[in-house]
Specification:
Number of domains of chain B: 1
Order of helices and strands of chain B: HHHEHHHHH
Number of strands of chain B: 1
Number of helices of chain A: 4
Shape of chain A: elongated
Shape of chain B: elongated
Structural class of chain A: alpha+beta
Oligomer: heterodimer
Largest sheet of chain A: 3 strands, antiparallel
Strand order of the largest sheet of chain A: 1-3-2
Distance between the termini of chain A: 17 Å
Largest sheet of chain B: none
Largest interface: A-B, 36 and 33 residues
CATH architecture of chain A: Orthogonal Bundle
């Protein structure tokens, strides 16, 4: 059994990577709306997961304002798959 | 950072919360107004010009093929740009559907319409060229609509596709290939 991944076990981080699994890239503000968190909270989690190699981010300019795009890496996608499988296994064991 | 928990209720709630966040994002996504109609028209133009140009077998004909391809790629890029601007996301699966008609049925309709169009152009049946082009355009648009519904149903399984960089390389290869035909012809 693959263990729980402490990097994406916290609910907000799990929501972040699960949401990103539905798209190739999302704008920071779009993610903030979907996750219903503040800029600072999202920024902190994105930075940590970028450092871990689970996410990638890039800056862009749209209509004169700077935007940040965030996407899930292959490593992050695999980590999410493994973590969700481990969580489901844990739930099944307890049930 | 929140602590790890082995309480079975917490993981269940965490998974449900994550699914809910993803659902919030995907249900908010919209195809911009006129997206599929413009896409169908662009495919029809590309098919019509390809059929005419190939049947003409002249340098001018190849130029028409190249022009049709350029129009299609320009419109496809514009549509994908509008989608990402309206929704704040990029979905490579959609790009594959639009630029490469990646679905099996859409690919078959496209190739069938192209073959019928080329045959009709060689026979100078121009109404049939137009009909095949329209059928091909509508078929590809219906294929894209079908993919969109599948994507909304299971986004994680359908979001992946060819990246913009790979599509740009394919577009350059296609244009260079036609340009080489133009020069050599």
């Amino acid at each position: 059994m693959v263990g729980l991944d402490p990097l994406i076990h916290p609910p907000t981080r799990l929501q972040l990577v699960t949401t990103l699994s539905a798209v190739s890239e999302a704008e920071f503000t779009t993610l903030r709306t979907a996750l219903q968190v503040s800029d600072s909270v999202l920024s902190k989690h994105v930075s940590a997961l970028v450092d871990a190699g689970y996410l990638r981010s890039r800056k862009s300019v749209h209509a004169g304002r700077r935007t940040t795009w965030v996407g899930l890496t292959d490593v992050g996608r695999q980590a999410l798959r493994d973590h969700v499988a481990a969580v489901r296994q844990l739930i099944d064991m307890v049930d | 950072m929140e602590s790890l928990s082995t309480d079975p209720q917490d993981p269940r709630t965490a998974l449900a919360g994550a699914d809910e966040a993803r659902r919030r994002l995907t249900t908010s996504l919209r195809l911009p107004a006129g997206f599929l109609v413009v896409f169908a028209a662009a495919v029809a133009v590309q098919l019509g010009t390809a059929a005419y140009g190939i049947a003409a077998q002249t340098v001018a004909g190849l130029a028409v093929v190249l022009a049709g391809l350029a129009v299609f790629l320009g419109v496809a890029a514009l549509l994908l740009h509008r989608f990402s601007r309206v929704n704040g996301v990029r979905v490579d699966g959609l790009a594959s559907q639009i630029v490469l008609a990646a679905g099996a049925s859409a690919s078959l309709v496209y190739l069938g319409a192209l073959a019928a169009g080329i045959w009709a152009a060689f026979e100078s049946q121009w109404w049939l060229v137009a009909a095949a082009s329209v059928v091909g355009g509508v078929g590809c648009a219906l294929g894209a609509r079908h993919w969109w519904r599948e994507y909304r149903h299971d986004p994680a399984a359908n979001s992946r596709g060819v990246s913009p960089r790979q599509l740009a390389v394919l577009a350059v290869v296609a244009c260079v290939g036609f340009a080489a035909l133009l020069v050599l012809g």
